[in-house]
Amino acid sequence: MSSRKDSIRKRITDDHQSAITILKSFTPEQWAKPAPSEQDAPWTAKDVLAHLADSEGGILGQLNRCLAGEATVPDGFDLARWNRRVVQKRAEASIADLLNTIEATHQQVLQRLETVSDAELDKTGKHARGDVITIEEFFTRITEHRKQHAEELKKVVG
């Protein structure tokens, strides 16, 4: 295993552990509290968790399409609209199911990292936010994004 992949693995594992510890610490009452969203939508903490459960797989999908030489997101992709719709679709999901989805996707991310060569880590593609990033950055953005939201939630509802 390359030291570069070791470094990526450590970062995403550390970010995962930090975020999941925070997310698993909330009470049912805290999950119902209002939380900020990037779209200024009236989200609760649970809505942010639903957003995270979807985004992890979404970013992994973008990474996989990039590696396959495909378009990572369609032209004109509206991330804010996507995020609002995902939260609506996952409204009935339980906290446990959303956390389990995050845990399962984290394992998929780690498994996918094992299959990527060092050269592929430098391949670039368009992220749903609109910026062009490397495969390495796709990997780290997955858990960095979750950690950022978890820390924000801790300040707001914790």
Explain what this protein looks like in three dimensions.
The chain is mostly helical and about 160 residues long. The protein has one domain (about 5-155): dinb family like domain (Four Helix Bundle (Hemerythrin (Met), subunit A)). The protein has 6 helices and 4 strands. A two-stranded antiparallel ribbon has the order 1-2. Strand 1 and strand 2 form a beta hairpin. Helix 1 runs parallel beside helix 6 and helix 3 runs parallel beside helix 5. The N and C termini lie far apart (about 40 Å). The model has no long low-confidence stretch (mean pLDDT about 90).
Number of strands: 4
The tally of domains stands at 1
CATH H-level superfamily title: dinb family like domain
What would the average pLDDT be, to the nearest integer?
Answer: 92
SSE series: HHEEHHHEEH
Gross morphology: globular
Strand content: 5-15%
Ranges where pLDDT stays below 50 over 5 or more residues in a row are: none
Give the CATH topology.
Answer: Four Helix Bundle (Hemerythrin (Met), subunit A)
Number of separate helices: 6
Quote the distance from N terminus to C terminus. 39 Å
Helix content range of the residues, please?
Answer: 55-70%
What is the CATH architecture descriptor? Up-down Bundle
Structural class, from secondary structure content? mainly alpha
Radius of gyration, in Å, reads 16 Å
Strand arrangement within the widest β-sheet reads 1-2
CATH class annotation:
Mainly Alpha
